[in-house]
Amino acid sequence: MAMAIICLLCFLAFCTEIQWIASVTDPGDVVALRSLKDQWKNTPPSWDKSGDPCGAPWEGVACNNSRVTALGLSTMGLIGKLNGDIGGLTELRSLDLSFNRGLTGSLSSRIGDLQKLSILILAGCGFSGEIPNELGNLAELSFLALNSNNFTGKIPASLGSLSKLYWLDLADNQLIGSIPVSTFTSPGLDLLKKAKHFHFNKNQLSGTIPSKLFSSDMVLIHVLFDGNQIRGEIPDTLGLVETLEVLRLDRNALTGDVPSNLNNLTNIVELNLAHNNLFGPLPNLAGMNSLSYVDLSNNSFQSSEAPTWFSNLQSLTTLVIEFGSLQGALPQKLFSLPQIQQVKLRSNAFNDTLNMGNSISQELQLVDLQNNRISTVTLGSGYKNTLILIGNPVCTSALANTEYCQLQQQTAKAYSTSLANCGSKSCSPEQNLNPQSCDCAYPYEGTFYFRAPSFRELSNANMFHSLEMSLWMKLGLTPGSVSLQNPFFNIDDYLQVQLELFPSTGKYFNRTEIVRLGFALSNQTYKPPPEFGPYYFIASPYLFPDEHGSTSISSITMIGIASGGGILVLVLVGLGVYAFRQKKRAEIAIGLSKPFASWVPSGKDSGGAPQLKGARWFSYVELKKCTSHFSESNEIGSGGYGKVYRGLLPGGQLVAIKRAQQGSRQGGLEFKTEIELLSRVHHKNVVGLVGFCFEQGEQML
What we know:
Strand order of the largest sheet: 1-2-4-6-8-10-11-12-14-16-18-21-23-25-27
CATH class of the domain at 428-544: Alpha Beta
Number of strands: 38
Strand content: 15-25%
CATH architecture of the domain at 428-544: 2-Layer Sandwich
Number of helices: 8
Shape: globular
Structural class: alpha/beta
């Protein structure tokens, strides 16, 4: 028996060797792929076989005339580095390794050898170090996405040589220095005449915005420079790029007057200049009739009355000018604009009478005029939603005891895909309910980050239904097999939405389907409804069937089992121990993901997450960021429970954050009860609860 097994194994090995010799794939490509396979963990099962990469084929590998032309392994859970052997795939046109956080280390300069590459997507990985100058050698490159990594150093000037590039996304890294423009001896980004997207937000870029960066022959539609350390004035050449639709320069250190020709940009939908040091007159936005969202908060503009464009921008949904110097009366027409949803003008100097008129838009949900100088209010009969007047003189007299002069929480609940048709059915921790079939399955999950949506009202079911419909139609899924959960505006003022996509049949997507979905969402093949604006997507790791314990048994394994009963017993004992440990790990994981439920005594109803009146959950990362990493300079108090920190939320709201210390933390049920009670307390002498954090062992209010 043993001799027969040995002979069989030798025969299989001989056949494998013959198969490699007879490979139809170019030998150089085979060597490069095998080197990558040796460097990476969690490659697809087909890569573990000795078949031909093009002939077998290997999952994620596409070929033409025996040459590898595309390598797509999005969301495979790869772990390792991208070594120099990638340069051996000289016919490669598309390389997509997005959403593999385990891919780390620096990018090899040999990536510049891929002379025919047109698509390079490394979004959502863990790469670090400087972006190689050799990327400038990729003359055919049209799509470059390096966002959401850990890249450092400067933006290479060599990227200006990529004359065919239309998408450039370097956002959410740690890049420093100024934005490079061309000189007599060096290229620069001003040469990218076909580029439509400059996404450089959430880095550490400094210096000024070069005047030379923009020109009238550019076709840019998205300029996203928010969340950097850029200083100096906004160049007036920006007003020459009349194709612009989204301009975000917020959260920088810009100074000076806003260019007077900015209103040449009549296609702009979102304009955000908040949180800078801009001065001079308030920008004149007259004629910018496509504008939907405007934020000019936290600058130092000259005192003035409300400009005439307040009343004339018919597409406006959201007007935000907080901590400004506007004065006088607010025009009635502002509140009757047909699309207006939110007016946020707190901490200005508006005075006189507030009269919203009798033709108030049905879309209007929020008017926040806290801390102005309004002395009288004439309320029309057409407005029943949130009006906040705290801190105005009118709240010391006529309206002192009304809801308008008390801290209010918006009562409209943010949209989530309904599971009402599924009744009380539940699934195991790793599975979720498919809203279309109510079956338990393993969805493809991740987070949408919409960088500039044209709306702010999160309870609008029609808006989110259109997003669901576009996802299942454009991604080729079964109607109804999309779930959207927990939309909110995060600390970067991006609309963040949890996404789940469910397989049309069975419980799992196969690897080919995962690669297809990952590519559609990373390559921007999928386009959401226009109201959602530019986005990026970060996928969660996907567990494939073979990673859930589903296996097949070969004939050799059967022979081994038949001849090794003793080994089988040992294996079963080992599996029992492993299963016990995995069960414990799963229980711990469930406790971490559902912290409130994990503290409930046996037999009692946990009630799930707290039932809140307006307060919301904050992530640990959000609170860490708004307190500058819980710096001592932001510490404003301490006691036996822990410390209190000053925090600044993205909209400019100043908050106090109570952080419990080790040893003083409550059980989950007690913490949940405290949150629910505080969220219901509304009194002029009691600080209102904005939200809470309960993750990573932290309890914060």
